[in-house]
Amino acid sequence: MMPGIGVLTQDTLWCFSQVKGTIEIGATEADIISTVEFNHTGELLATGDKGGRVVIFQREQESKNQVHRRGEYNVYSTFQSHEPEFDYLKSLEIEEKINKIRWLPQQNAAYFLLSTNDKTVKLWKVSERDKRPEGYNLKDEEGRLRDPATITTLRVPVLRPMDLMVEATPRRVFANAHTYHINSISVNSDYETYMSADDLRINLWNFEITNQSFNIVDIKPANMEELTEVITAAEFHPHHCNSFVYSSSKGTIRLCDMRASALCDRHSKFFEEPEDPSNRSFFSEIISSISDVKFSHSGRYIMTRDYLTVKVWDLNMENRPIETYQVHDYLRSKLCSLYENDCIFDKFECVWNGSDSVIMTGSYNNFFRMFDRNTKRDVTLEASRENSKPRAILKPRKVCVGGKRRKDEISVDSLDFSKKILHTAWHPSENIIAVAATNNLYIFQDKVN
Amino acid sequence: MFARGLKRKSAEDGEDVEGGLAGAQAMPSYSLQRQSLLDMSLVKLQLCHMLVEPNLCRSVLIANTVRQIQEEMAQDGTWRVVAPQAAGRAPLDRLVSTDILCRSVREQEGERPGPDAGDGHTPDLVPGLATVPSAQALRSPQSSLWEVDSSRENRGGFQKSLDQIFETLENKTSGSVEELFADVDSPYYDLDAVLTGMVGSTQSGHGSGLQAFSSATAPPPSSSCRSDLGELDHAVEILVET
């Protein structure tokens, strides 16, 4: 039994487990982590970075000797997924930054994942090799061909153990289907198809076919000058392979059914919260832009992240969310400065825990927040090297809004806006979280009593 | 000896812009801050046009913000031709604190001047060079930054983008508008370079640009606009030399 799973009470304490990545000196922009994702069992944890690399960590088997230390994640495979490219037609560079990684469910000994940059999606196969055939008839041990005339006997090659080698090979490359920047990929529950979404279009792919894709959503206006809204994120329903949602820069979510028509221009459901006229400012639209949308594991709810809040929606109710959580409302009075320094355009992601009872999202100053949907409690934690002693319990952090600042609080003006937690991941069944802080990956676990 | 204790009056009072502000030093007016936000947004639009490949979402959000401001200014009647005297100022000098813009409408009701009250200031208050070239700049980057897959030659075709987005601006020009930054090599994140680039095309196309811009205001006689053009040209030349 997993203690504390799904319940964020005062008894749940989060502890530092590991940190991966270099300490500031020597970190380059290429090392900035741009996506984090556990696989379906939680055995593997993948990260992608701005330099186009993918690093996969594997959880070590728990040993009976060290029960208090749940399996640690160690590097399993590292490979260059995408390279920088140049689009000669437009005279523009195509960044190699990995925007998203999505795992396929495991169907055999090998692992498969999708990784994408702005333009191209790739299917990678990660497999192990721990045996090697020896005793060929026509080749000697170094691989040189033997003169057939010297062969007097035949033998059957045998497999001998070798040092474990993990290979990553690109099995499919899905290219040339997106004019605009890909922001999302999502594997369908049929395990045969997946979708890729850019600013204006969503395409449906079959894993086996790389030279064709179906366009299922197209919001590009006939006249580009009339463009006022873009697609910001998209995801398939976890169980219904015909349903998917996509979010927009105007704070709306559309649920589409692919059975209704080939081109899902008309939504089945349209989720939008009416605007509060008393809260309107020039920045209202920008902060309503949805940066991430995630189905709950149950498929009953969707969670959206906009600049200041996280919202949970019931698929059966379109006119408003059922829950709204303030992530960092103290920034509301700073929107002008955040607009000036472009922070207002930061795209934060959000995640569910395995039982859909707790949601998590990042903030600035390397803070990240968790909200328990049942108890309505929330906590702010920090990913920092100072709290990085093994099994050290993370102390809740608090931002002081005004008035007298208490000893452990930090004032809004002291927040470091260059330290932003945009990407987090939650283990599918345990209380283990991975938090990407610029070029470092922190892994936290709940305290095992 | 008697004059020692006397402080000389600020020489800046002589300039139209500062003089207008004298009464509002403590809290920049809503209009001024709104203008400042507009300037900031337009600079952002130009800058993001220069990036590797513009982030479409960000561009769309900024453009929508610009449109909102412009619509509001049109309602207020504060969207007007700028006087060339203020042209010598770099837009960034005019970026005053815009905290007031962050407040909700409810908070602002007490402070904001009514639409007919206006600022009580002359058009000189509105930063000259910042606005005019910005309108100019709106033409091509605004739409061309969205049309990523268009060839460069097509950019002239996006001349009409401005009037479709901002209803009050009528586009009377025809023909291609040169890409503002097509052959400028200097770094675009440098505002000075941006202004230089604008000047380059302003001089060539400014006549038509200002024509269109001025026609948007309610309703300036075209003759006075023409005289303004010459003065603006002169002012812009000064800027280039600095």
Automatic annotation (TrEMBL), chain A:
The keyword Repeat applies. Gene3D superfamilies: YVTN repeat-like/Quinoprotein amine dehydrogenase. Keywords: Repeat, WD repeat. The keyword Protease does not apply. GO terms for molecular function: protein phosphatase regulator activity. GO terms for cellular component: protein phosphatase type 2A complex. Belongs to the phosphatase 2A regulatory subunit B family. This is Serine/threonine-protein phosphatase 2A 55 kDa regulatory subunit B. It comes from Zalophus californianus (California sealion). The gene is PPP2R2B.
UniProtKB/TrEMBL annotation, chain B:
Residues 30-77 form the SERTA domain. Keywords: Cell cycle, Cell division. Pfam families: SERTA. Residues 1-20, 201-228 are annotated as: Disordered. GO terms for biological process: cell division. GO terms for cellular component: nucleus. This is Cell division cycle-associated protein 4 isoform X2. The gene is CDCA4.
